Amino acid sequence: MSMVLTTASVPDRDKVAYWNDAVSRTLVPMTVVPQGDGPFDGRITTDRLGYLRVSTMEADAKRISRTPTLIARSSEAYVAIGVQVSGPATFIQDGRRAEVGEGDLVVYDTTRPYFFDYPQRFSTHVFQLPRRVLGVPEADIRRVTGTAIGTTDGFGSMLVPFLATLAASAHAYTPAVADRLAGNVVDLFSTLVAERTNQVTLEADTARAHLVLQVRDHINRNLGDPDLSPESIAQALRISIRYLHRVFEGEGITVGRLIQHRRLEECGRELARRGRTVPTVSVVAQRWGFVNPAHFSRAFRAVYGVSPREWRSLRTVEAEGRPGPDPSAEARLPSADQR
């Protein structure tokens, strides 16, 4: 279900404060300064597709700034993709300035300061990807921030329409489809970065990206198989184990680590669900391919900072709105490069 926050029913004197809080909670902490004289009007709609957060924001003219102080308050690092639907914008990050027009795409990193100037009423889609799920070097991300990418700019001609369609229909997908789409956005973003940084030739990159998609799809479809491994994947895709590992050298994570990461991700998601019948921790672990309960518990704690049972209790407390400990474990999730 979409989360919708709007200033429509907020008293005029409180609209700006409400909007600052709304966008800071929905996106990342930031400062919003309206440019008009009248009462401020804004609306933001947000959906989640797995680990991908999709928001559509429509608001009056304003300036947005994200400072080092605000960055320090954030528990998660994101890379964001903005698609401008209507109205112009000026974006500044890493010393580069981009004039963003309708239909343009801009990439920015929430771990570094940035500034947006919207001189008139506007609408934009914002896609936020946790930095930890990307296999893209930070140096390459820096090369694409602060640059407007249009529908006539190479890979942007395919990516921009896809993202616009995804934002419009984000509320309609089942969890299984949503997870697949989130993975596809990660792969498409990686391809965009590869194209913009000229790391590889287009032909080689296309072949590698296609194989990476096949590997990720095979992993997602076989997570419950305890025998899933780099060797079984290579055999299923009729490639050598050496070539499989070489293809994943640029992903920032090994195939074995990716399998475990996805299994733990699905276990964490299922343990957080509420329902009349709640499966035991061991049942959840076995469902996603873990055969040794002790190994599962150690691996889960290493990533989430708490045991599986503590994770379930934390999420239950949050869902019921009861006071409980600060669920800061997610902030300790290591990046792909650290695992």
UniProtKB/TrEMBL annotation:
Residues 213-314 form the HTH araC/xylS-type domain. Keywords: DNA-binding, Transcription, Transcription regulation. Residues 316-339 are annotated as: Disordered. GO terms for molecular function: DNA-binding transcription factor activity; sequence-specific DNA binding. Pfam families: AraC_binding_2, HTH_18. PANTHER family: ARAC SUBFAMILY (PTHR46796:SF6), HTH-TYPE TRANSCRIPTIONAL ACTIVATOR RHAS-RELATED (PTHR46796). This is Helix-turn-helix domain-containing protein. The lineage of its organism: Bacteria, Bacillati, Actinomycetota, Actinomycetes, Streptosporangiales.
